[in-house]
Amino acid sequence: MSGILAGAGLLAAAAACAVAILLPPGRARSAAMLLALALFPLLILGDQWHTQQIVDLRHSGARTAALAASGLVAVAALAYLFRRWPVLLPLAIVAAVPFRIPLHSGGDTANLLVPLYLVIAGGVLAVLLRDWPALPAGGAEGEAENGASLPRPQASPSVAPGGVAAVWLPRILAAVVVVYGVQTLYSEDFSKGLQNMCFFLVPFTVAFALLQDVEWDNRVLRWVLFVVIGEALAFVLIGGVEYASRSLFWNDAVIRSNEFHTYFRVNSVFWDPNVYGRYLALVLVVVTTALLWAKRRRDFWLLAVAILVLWVGLAQTFSQSSFIALLAGLAVLAAIRWSWRWTLGAVLVGLVAAVLVVTLVGGSGKINFSRLNIDTSGRANLVQGGVDLFAERPLWGYGSGSFQHAYADHGDKSVPVSVSHTEPVTVIAEQGLIGLFFYLALILTALWAMTAGLRGRRAGRAAVLAAFVALLVHTMSYAGFFEDPITWVLLAIGAALASTPYVPASVRDPA
Fold it and tell me: What letter would DSSP give residue 199?
C-alpha cells in the first residue's frame, strides 16, 4: 500500500509541476505550485521514514521543531520581501543557486539546496498572496492591490523573436517532468528516482514557473550580472585561501585525492571541484558577453579585471570539462559578435587537432581506449556500460534514477557509480528512447528559442545562449543537466526573452 501511495503522490507532484508551467498566472497555477511543494517533503519523509537519518530526526523532536519553525519564519520573511519588492525574487533565486547546506543526521551528511528551497517557497507564498485575495469589482484575477506583482510582458507573436519556440518550450519541459515521474514507477531504484523528482525536478519546475512571471528588462539583467559577478569573486577568494593554505573546507574524497596528486584542486563552497569549475565557466561566459557589448571604457576595464580573477579561480579547479565548456561558450559568443563561418572553421580545426592527439596517444596510430579511460577518470568505461544497458532495454530503459542500481546488477559490480557522467548516456540507460526523445526535443526547442532572431538583439540573449551551450557541453562529461538549477534558470530566462518583442533603441521611450 505504501508503494502505491508513493507512486500516486509522485504522479500528482509531476502533474502539479506540469500545470504550474503551462497555466498562466492565476489561482489555479498558484495552487498547483503549492501542491507540488507540499508533496515534496511528504514524499521524501514517506520514502525515508525508516532510515536512520529520519529516525534520528523523529527522536530529536525539539531540534526538528526548531528547524521547521526557522524555515517557516524565513519563508514568511522572504514572501514579504518579494511582495514588497518583486525584483528581489529573481535575484534571490539566482543568488541561492550555488549554495548547499550540509545536514548531519544518522551518521550521514546530505548536502541540500536549502537556501534555494526556502527562496522558492517564499516566492510561492508571495504568488499565493497575490493571486488569492478577493477580486475587486471589475478587476482581473490575481491583480495585486498595491501593484507589487511580478508582471509578465505580453508579447505579440508577430514581433517576438522566438515566439513559437517560446510557446513550445514550457510544454516540452512539462512533458519531460511527467515522463520522468512515470518512468520512476518501474525504476529498479524507485527511491533514487523519487529523490531526484523531489529534490530537483519539482522545486526547479516551480522556480521556472516563478521566473516566467518576471519582466526580464535590461535593469533586471544588469542586477543579475552584478549578483553573479559578486558571488563568483567571493567564491574565488575562498578558493584562493584554500589553494594558499593547501586545505579544503569539506569533501574528504577530494582532500584524499589532493594528497596523491602533484597538483592541488580547490572546491571553494562547492562540494565538487568540477561543479565549482562549471559555475565559474558559466559566469565567465556571462561576464565576457558583458565585456564584448560594453559601451563605456570604465565598464570594459572593470569587467576585464573580473575576468582575469575568475580565470585564476577556474585554473585552480583543474577541471578539464569546465575549460572545454568555457571554450564552447566563448565560441558561441564569437559566432554571434563577429562571424559564425570563421568561428565554425576554428572549431572544426580544433576538433580535428583534438582527435589527432587522442588517436596518436602512445604513438600507436589508433585510439588507445585504456589510456583514454584513465585520462577521463573511468568515464569511458561508464559510457560503455550505459550503452550496454541501453542495448538491453532500448525503448523504456531501466527507469528514472536507476543507473547506479542497474550498472551494479548488469555491469561492472566493482565500480561504485551514480551516473554515467555523460548526460545522454544516463538518459538512454534510464529512460530509453522515450526519455531520449523528450531530452533532445527540449534541447532543440531551447536552442531554437534562444537563437531565433538573435542577430542585432541585446546582449542578454547572447549571454543566455552561450551559457546554455557551455552547460550542455559540460554535461557531456559530467552529467547533471536536470539536477542543476542553473539549467532551469537559463531555460526560463531564455524563454522569456524569446517571447518578448524587441524594440530598437531608436524608437525606445527614453524613460
Answer: I
Burial of 368 (0-12, 13-18, 19+ CB in 10 A): middle
Three-state DSSP at 290 gives: helix
Q: Is the separation of the CB atoms in 39 and 154 below 8 Å?
A: no
Q: What is the pLDDT of residues 343-385, one digit of tens each?
A: 888 878 877 777 676 666 555 555 555 555 555 555 667 787 8
- The answer to whether residues 182 and 11 touch, using CB atoms and an 8 Å cutoff, is yes
* Long-range Cβ pairs for the range 104-108 (8 Å, 24+): 105/52, 105/53, 105/54, 105/56, 105/57, 106/51, 106/52, 106/53, 106/54, 106/55, 106/56, 107/52, 108/52, 108/53
Residues 6+ apart with CB under 8 A from 159: 501, 502
* Terminal alpha carbon distance of the chain: 62
Each residue's pLDDT tens digit, 59-82: 777 777 888 899 999 999 999 999
Are the beta carbons of 482 and 333 closer than 8 angstroms?
no
The answer to whether 114 touches 68, Cβ cutoff 8 Å, is: no
DSSP 8-state code for residue 109? E
Phi-psi region of 140 (alpha: psi -120 to 50; beta: other; left: phi over 0): beta
Read off φ and ψ for residue 98, nearest 5 degrees.
Answer: -75, -15
Residue 4, C-beta contacts closer than 8 angstroms, at least 6 positions apart: none
Q: Match 513559437 to its residue by C-alpha cell.
A: 164
Q: What is the chain's percent helix, strand, coil content, to nearest 5?
A: 70, 0, 30
Q: Look at residues 404, 11, 42 and name the one whose alpha carbon lies nearest to residue 192.
A: 404
Burial of 402 (0-12, 13-18, 19+ CB in 10 A): buried
Identify the CA nearest to 232 among candidates 292, 309, 320: 309
pLDDT digits (tens, 9 = 90+) for 441-458: 999 999 999 988 776 557
Bridge partners of 108, per DSSP, are 105
Q: How far from chain centre, in Å, is Cα 181?
A: 18
Backbone region of residue 207 per phi and psi (left: phi > 0; alpha: psi in -120 to 50; beta: other values): alpha
C-alpha cell at 1: 500500500
The domain spans of the chain are 218-501
The pTM of this model reads 0.88
Residues of the chain where predicted confidence (pLDDT) is lower than 50 = 1, 134-135, 137-149, 151-159, 507-511
pLDDT digits (tens, 9 = 90+) for 113-154: 999 999 999 999 999 998 887 445 444 444 444 434 454 444
Q: How many residues does the chain have?
A: 511
